[in-house]
Write a structure and sequence with these properties.
The complex is a heterodimer of chains A (about 300) and B (about 325). In chain A, about 45% of the residues lie in helices and about 10% in strands. In chain A, the strands form three sheets. A five-stranded parallel sheet of chain A has the order 3-2-1-4-5, sandwiched between helices. In chain A, helix 4 links the parallel strand 4 and strand 5. Classes of the chains: A alpha/beta (about 300), B mainly alpha (about 325).
Chain lengths: ~300, ~325
């Protein structure tokens, strides 16, 4: 239901701004763009900002929205095929700003119009990236309304998170073995908004391979895994005593497109994950009344599913 | 041999003591029983096994090839075994037996190829051997990176595998590797007398009654088994097989009856220390232990090469 609401809101936002004369559907100067996107989040933003039809090339990692799969592939975003990009004859190449990437300067030397956006490490930076994509494609108004809507919903989730009686400690495994995120990742930010604390939030880097014994020592209450299954995690030697494993709070079924993407879909990921945190709270003896109270506070009945 | 035995015993006791001490070293200062039992103990065991396997294989290679620069990493055996592991992963064969068969098959193949390329006129000169090793190693590394770039989804785990890590906690795999390395070491040790005679030259060994071809075949096979078993659980950890046999030769002399077990113990000791550093240097980050061993190993390799040059062997 909430998802439907979100979709409606987003579509509404697009519709609203599409009515704006500056962004009217008539062919304008920007409709002639041929855009190459060099990152999945940029591709998502382009489609969300109704520039999907102008996209001529995407990376091999750009799998959302499904229409992106129909576009020409340019390779990955660190080592794309320069030839392929040039052959697509783009009028605009959108790339994330990487301190180590030489690709952008090479493309510029070849005379291409490259616009670099921020590479988001926090939620505000995700908004900023969407704004920058909007600016580059002449869809600033649309971008602004999208960001406003996103911000509103994220703030709602944040308020709810702040009202939780207890914040669970969370270990996120983005890849095996024990690859996780540190302070400089928007995922840590996202967990915090939902009402949890990343157990590696103290490490000042975006991603790290954590030592297994540190994970066991920090004993997370919720494990969120994107690669390994919950069963695999449970059967790892020494992991069976973790609070998350003992209490059945290993989450491996956040739908792939609900995982914390550095993009518009993040809001849905946040909602799903917050639901799990609330479920965790209820399983850990926080009184049902309290949970219902939060639900009333949000003006909706919380979806709490005790059955696995 | 008598004093050798005493020194071996001392080395054994020292290794056991150090293994015990290393159990309390790590990023977590007051480890729980689960951490000690399920994380550190398997790591220390793995360090002992893999260190013994790689250094034992190194000692075997150096003896058979009469070449101080022979080492599973330099000869390309490790890269080949790693390529085998990757092929098994690529074919989505997750059965442990397949893992070991692939890594062993590739390791044997690489040794066959390297010795074939390097052998000229009944001898394997230092230059051609290292050169052949480098070529084969480059070939298999390239194959590994090709798989790596195509099957990017497994990239994170494979990256660490390529750099060498002792985080594998699967007790089945540790047990299988343990048996393979034990068997390889035992076979090499049985042939220690032949190895001693082989270092005099193959002809001399033949005249002293050694079945040269057969002995060489068994020794190569034993070394390959140890390398394959090590790589299958720990990835590519370099230079253990190079440094340790040399240190042991300096400490305990060239007699392979002592040198083989001493190298195994020394390798275990070296990896126990390296892995204790790998897990505690930058907590809570995991550092690939292979990066540390290569960091110590490369300067030592250059030192050896320079010394050999000065002694006019090139």
């Amino acid at each position: 239901m909430r998802r439907l609401l979100l979709t409606t809101l987003l579509i509404g936002a697009w519709f609203f701004s599409a009515c704006h004369p500056r962004d009217a559907g008539k062919p304008g100067p920007h409709d002639t763009h041929r855009i190459v996107s060099m990152a999945p989040s940029l591709t998502e933003a382009l489609f969300a900002l109704q520039s999907g039809s102008q996209v001529v090339g995407v990376t091999n990692y750009c799998t959302y929205p499904p229409e992106a799969l129909q576009k020409e592939k340019i390779g990955d975003f660190i080592n794309p095929s320069i030839e392929k990009i040039v052959s697509l004859n783009p009028t605009l190449v959108l790339a994330e700003r990487w301190s180590s990437s030489k690709v952008v300067s090479r493309l510029r030397k070849l005379g291409l119009n490259v616009v670099e956006t921020i590479s988001p490490l926090s939620l505000p930076e995700i908004y900023q990236q969407i704004a920058e994509v909007g600016q580059a494609t002449g869809k600033s108004k649309l971008a602004d309304s999208l960001i406003q809507e996103m911000r509103k919903q994220v703030e709602e989730i944040r308020r709810r998170g702040e009202n939780l009686p207890r914040r669970p400690t969370v270990y996120v495994e983005i890849d095996v073995p024990s690859w996780t995120v540190g302070r400089n990742s928007f995922i840590t930010d996202a967990i915090s908004v939902c009402g949890g604390n990343n157990i590696f939030g103290d490490v000042a880097r975006p991603a790290l391979q954590a030592s297994v014994e540190t994970i066991l020592d920090r004993n997370p209450e919720i494990i969120l895994t994107f690669q390994a299954t919950a069963a695999e995690i449970r059967h790892r030697p020494g992991w069976s005593n973790l609070r998350a494993v003992r209490n059945g709070n290993v989450i491996d079924d956040l739908k792939p497109n609900r995982r914390f993407n550095g993009s518009l879909r993040l809001v849905e990921g946040l909602r799903d994950f917050q639901e799990r945190i609330i479920k965790w709270g209820s399983l850990n003896g926080d009184s049902p009344q309290l949970i219902i109270k939060w639900g009333l506070k949000w003006g909706q009945s919380p979806k709490i599913n005790h059955a696995k | 041999m008598k004093s050798g035995g005493k020194r071996l015993l001392a080395l054994l006791l020292f290794t056991i003591a150090l293994a015990g001490v290393s159990l309390v070293i790590g990023p977590v200062h007051t480890p729980s029983a689960a951490i000690l039992w399920h994380v550190r103990l398997p790591r220390v065991l793995l360090a002992i096994l893999v260190g013994a396997g790689l250094a034992g294989a190194g000692a075997g290679f150096q003896g058979v090839l009469r070449n101080p620069l022979a080492d599973p990493y330099i000869l390309g055996t490790s890269s080949a075994a790693a390529a085998g592991v990757m092929v098994a992963a690529m074919l989505r064969i997750h059965h442990p037996a397949a893992l070991y068969l692939f890594s062993l098959g590739f390791a044997l193949l690489s040794i066959f190829v390297v010795t074939r390329i390097a052998r000229t006129g009944g001898k394997t000169p230092v230059q051609t051997l290292v050169l052949a090793g480098v070529i084969v190693s480059l070939f298999f590394n390239a194959a590994v990176f090709l798989f790596f770039s195509i099957f990017y989804r497994e990239s994170f785990s494979i990256l660490f595998f390529l750099l060498g890590t002792l985080t594998e906690g699967d007790s089945t795999l540790i047990t299988i590797s343990g048996f393979m390395i034990g068997a390889g070491l035992f076979a090499s040790w049985i042939l220690a007398r032949e190895l001693n005679l082989l270092t005099q030259g193959e002809e001399a060994a033949f005249h002293l009654g050694v079945d040269v071809e057969n002995a060489k075949r068994i020794l190569f096979a034993a070394a390959s088994v140890m390398v394959a078993a090590s790589v299958a659980v720990a990835g590519m950890i370099g230079f253990v097989g190079l440094i340790v046999p040399h240190m042991m030769r300096l400490l305990l002399g060239p007699d392979h009856r002592v040198l083989i077990p001493a190298s195994a113990l020394g390798g275990a000791l070296f990896l126990i220390i390296a892995d204790a550093l790998a897990r505690s240097l930058a907590p809570p980050l995991e550092i690939p232990v292979g990066a540390l061993t290569a960091l110590f190993g490369s300067p030592y390799f250059i030192f050896l090469l320079r010394r050999k040059q000065r002694m006019g062997e090139f």
